[in-house]
Design goal:
By secondary structure, the protein is mainly β. It has one domain. About 15% of the residues lie in helices and about 65% in strands. It has 1 helix and 6 strands. The chain has one helix at about 1-20, and strands spanning about 30-40, 40-60, 65-80, 85-95, 105-125, 130-160. Strands 1-2-3-6-4 form a 5-stranded antiparallel barrel. A hairpin with a 5-residue loop joins strand 5 and strand 6. The model is unreliable at about 15-25 (pLDDT under 50).
Length: about 160
């Protein structure tokens, strides 16, 4: 069992690295800022998981920060449990992005592996009419025992 978990963890880490390296700036979008999300703890249910997120968008141009809440759902292999973590994405959006435009549903590839301390990456596209791309600025950090690979869905709603 330990050997299987080690193999799955290595596969997930390789996938996370490939996702981070393969992500490139979309041609029709500009770097709009960074989105930092605190991710709740959770338990992988073998074929998926759900974790709550609290996020802050810091625009590159002058303007107020935007606060979002929502959840991240993973579909595919997801085994184990993790404490809360944090993920930071670079946000690419049309140059005419309006306040609150990050609200919406994003989807894309995900991979993570955690043995005590772990890493993960999620490359996602969505938001306002699928015009916003979230690309890993840094890998997701978390603690626990978990391995996951598959498709991620991030839902962001304006915080009230």
């Amino acid at each position: 069992m330990r050997r299987l978990f080690s193999s799955l963890a290595a596969l997930a880490l390789a996938s996370a690295a490939a996702i981070a390296v393969a992500s490139a700036q979309p041609a029709d979008r500009v770097k709009a800022g960074t989105l930092t999300c605190d991710i709740s703890s959770g338990i992988g249910m073998i074929l998926g998981s759900h974790k709550s997120v609290q996020c802050v968008f810091a625009p590159d141009m002058s303007g107020p920060q935007e606060v979002y809440q929502g959840g991240i759902n993973k579909y595919g292999l997801d085994i184990g449990a993790t404490s809360g973590g944090q993920m930071v994405w670079v946000v690419f959006a049309p140059s005419t992005r309006q306040f609150g435009a990050l609200a919406g549903v994003y989807s894309g590839a995900t991979a993570e592996a955690t043995v005590a301390v772990g890493l993960g990456a999620n490359v996602l596209v969505g938001g306002s009419n699928h015009t916003i791309a979230l690309q890993p600025l840094s890998l997701q950090g978390q603690t626990g025992l978990n391995v996951a690979a598959g498709v991620a869905e991030l839902v962001l709603n304006p915080a009230h």
